[in-house]
TrEMBL record:
GO terms for biological process: intracellular calcium ion homeostasis; polyamine transmembrane transport. This is Cation-transporting ATPase. Residues 273-384 form the P-type ATPase A domain. Coiled coil: none annotated. Residues 1156-1193 are annotated as: Disordered. The lineage of its organism: Eukaryota, Metazoa, Chordata, Craniata, Vertebrata. One of its GO terms (cellular component) is late endosome membrane. Residues 1165-1174 have a biased composition (Basic and acidic residues). Residues 160-212 form the Cation-transporting P-type ATPase N-terminal domain. It comes from Anolis carolinensis. It is found in: Membrane.
Amino acid sequence: MGGKLSLDGHHALLGKGTEDEMEIFGYRTQFFRKALCIAGYLFSCGALLLVFYWKPEWDVWANCVPCNLEEADTVLLRATDEFQRYKRKKVISLSLQHLLDSEKPDLLFSEDRDSVIYRAITRPGLKVRFIQVQKIRYAWDVPGKAFVRVGSLEDSNTCYEIHRKFGDGLTKRQRDLRKLVCGPNAIEIEIRPIWKLLFKEILNPFYVFQAFTLTLWLSQGYYEFATALIILSIISIGLTVYDLRQQSVKLHNLVEEHNKVRVTAWTKHEGGHQSESCHLVPGDVLLLEGQKLSLPCDAILLDGSCVVNEGMLTGESVPVTKTPLPQADNVQPWKKHSLEDHRRHVLFCGTEVIQTRPSGKGPARAVVLQTGFNTAKGDLVRSILYPKPLNFRIYKEAFLFIVGLIFVAIVGLIYGACVYAENKRPVRETAVMALLLLSAVVTPALPAALTTGIVYAQKRLKKRKIFCISPQRINICGQINLVCFDKTGTLTEDGLNLFGVVPCQDASFLPLHSFSSGPLPWGPLCQAMATCHSLLFLEGRIQGDPMDLKMFEGTGWEMEESGSGDPESGVPKTCSVVKPGPKASKAPSEGMSILHQFPFSSSLLRMSVVTKELGKDNHGLYMKGAPETVASFCLPKTVPPSFQAELKSFTAQGFRVIALAHKELSLDAGHSLRDLDRDEVESGLTFLGLLVMENRLKGETRPVLEELREARIRTVMVTGDNLETAITVGRNSGMIPSGDRVILVEASDPEDPHPASVTWQTVEDTQPCKEKNQDPCITIYDKSSSSFHFAMNGKTFQALQKSFSSLLPKILVNGTVFARMSPGQKSSLVEEFQKLDYYVGMCGDGANDCGALKMAHAGISLSEQEASVASPFTSQTPNIQCVPELIREGRAALISSFAVFKYLVLYGMVLFIGCALLYWQMQIFGNYQFLLQDGVAMVACLTMSLTHAHPRLAPFRPSGRLISPPLLLSVVFSILSNLAIQTCGFVFVRRQAWYAQVRSYSPCSPGNQSSFPFGVNGDPNGTSAIRNMVVSYENTTLYHLATLDCCVLAFVFCKGRPFRKPIYSNYIFTCLMSIWLGLCVFILFADIEVIYKGLQLLCTPNLWRGYILIMIVVRFAVSVFVEDALLENRRLWLWIKALLGIRSSSKYRKLQRQVEGEASWPPTNHRDFAEDAKRNRKSKTYVNPAYENSKDV
């Protein structure tokens, strides 16, 4: 968990190789530097402190000097991702003097010298130095010279060492020491106080900037305008704080019960005692007695067996049996000894113990493995508290956009200062007016503009029962161009239906037995189906895996619990007993007891049970699992020669096939079942037959996949099922279109003396013929077929990653079916797709997909279990209809965010241009003028995003970039056109015969003549000694032009098709903006003294007002034409790209383009070796025409 120090000891990696990996730098606080910084805080009135709050690395660099990590009192952490964000942490020194003296540490850890805690104690000071990062403690390992994670037992312990060191529990002194260093066993999420949330929100840079601008406006007497902005800011901050507070309360309630569990712990030399779970430490021994228990920690089962509900982890509320950790004297670490199957010995935090089965001399026992946030549930909560930063370029480009606006604002600042200085205005007035012009450019609401579409989209998704815990990902959904689907429970129905069983006798398959024709006859095959499962009889009913339940129900047998076990022989006191029921075939047996179980695991692809027939002494072992796996454990002479053909005949039709096998066991009376070696007993089996189960497609699957394909969105199947079955489901669902070739890829790891190899083979499409008496039809596709799909299993995928890393991206470009994939491999596959610049969605039922759901850009869980909380999206409707819904809303939200962002940029620039022109004659817009303009902008921003998503997915994605030619040209054109009309208005109004400079408001003359013989207020020369800062014909003209332009720009930017419904469907926006536009036109032509006096406007001739309206109408017509006919014309942009030779820079696009002329791809019916792949690393890849036309604008 630690990292190697650099040569100077100042820098290291924290949590190396984990998701939490960070760079760590050591610093020591220097008194002189700190004193200077405090002085800086005072002299800057807190501004320097605020800067350090925003930039913690500057704080550390200013206050501290670099030093060795061993001597550091402050550390600086830097993320190793592309964002490289900094965090500042204090190193805490913990004294152990009151618990230890200089001699006792060696005695306390006499049997565990490799413990992290022992290595963290400094001598002779007896102190432990640690830091706390994202709820995890890292203690300083003195010999290792690195910060290492504490709060769990070391992975280096072997099975034997865990039993020896911790089997008898810890002493009280050891427990106290571990608790002090590791902290309490609690997942504590404080309900953040409102004042803290408020303080953090107010210190956001944009609210600080807004406070600065409000101060300026108030200093100039703009009280009404500033008050309106203050009210809006308070409402915005209040809503944000309320939302954050509610999230904090929900998360607190989610974990609150975890910290209040009463447990029975075993203390060495003292025995068992009841205590609160918060006092547990790694190494404690838990006594698991009969009662139900929600586990407050991760623990390794040492003795007995447990039945737990792991719905919190897997998303499936299916009872799982946990077996004790073997006491094998093996030098391998305990996790490696059991490979991926080590989870069968671990009781995870948050899971519920339904039943315990003691064995040996006492109750079931478990040793605490991890506590607090180190546990499985703690990790789940941390993933919510500290989500992975979004690498979405829209947010980076928004920052660059704002930087550009700041540059314009600085130019305005200089311009304003020069104008006022030239007119010899006072320094204070010059500075204030220059800063006012600066503040007009950057609207404080600009960053929030990117979230308005998200907020409305989230509400619409909620109505469709799609819930989101990471709203920022909604915009990313608009960019998704590849979706991975789990098969069982996602594309197909959750449950399986029994189709039949194919018995095997004398190495030959018998005809298929259909369960609809009657019960299965008594025999080993029937016994295997009745016993080889993980079902449990709980609370008066049979519970367990749905497939096991269907298989057991097919036998007609019944289950009950029995207390006939013998603890001395390793048989649990209670074991499952199955007996023939009324619907079962006649059997010369009273029933069978299931004595021992070797659980199923995704790595082994099998499970087995040890049974005993009631009233007899004969024992037997029954196995079920993946057909290929089970057959490999059977005697070759018992496996029919037609095994592969028979298997393929069913899997090619989409059936789920399970193989069954049997073996007689000879067990001595004193033989303990706990000492059985799994590899030994699971050998030399007799093959019994195949169980065929039907897994039907959900009704929504085919139309949804068709809709995604028409939208040029790739679909990929990632399943743990058989490869042939997955291919058939892919064909039946339309994921693999009719007529497309499927190429099976099989790779193997290097084995001396043979190098790693990969084989390519075209898969024949086997379909059931309409005639019952005919064999299945086989369609062989022509090799010249242009569209093809790669299919492979998890083993091949892993081998390609290891030995053919340069070939893997080429395969993934056309990879469609990935079968027999473990949960870890699913996550790796999603990551590999992301490396190719795909925006990846993942849809699964949560069972084994949690890692992939978290890894994807948009993970959609169809499960409501607690595990799915870590998934960004959860659908309460258990079908894949949610996928296109989410993509539609994502696209609409993205377009809405762009529209609002662009509108606010233009709004700021319109005001900036108007103010800059008025500054030329030492004027500015009036208080209520600003207020009215802000009202127009506010209504537009709040309602523009209410337009719903278009019901049809367009066959291309919206641009995911703010800095893209269409958007930049749109902004530049709008700025230039507004500059043109405002400049024309400013210049030409001064050339009118009725124009005069004024110093105060004057009412309209009767009849509103078209010309005036003299200047206002009776000055024939139109001059005044003191000019009014607001009232003028220039101001009146620019106000009308700016306000009306803001109205029409809202209509221009509120896009409809192809990603949103037409603008008129947004009734609220259309009505309110029409009212605003009508009001502005009314003010333009009305001769109402109250309005003109309140807005500080001057009466102008009707002809001039008509000119203003004509300019706005022309501006609107030209803008609509430029936006729709040119800038948003996708065909035009594709033609320009083709003309200029501009192509997509995405990695998967480059791979596709590289192979357009390569005739040797895809390879078929031959084998490549690792050496060949290395020589051909620069070889090209084939482009699939099915997705070739999905070009990005």
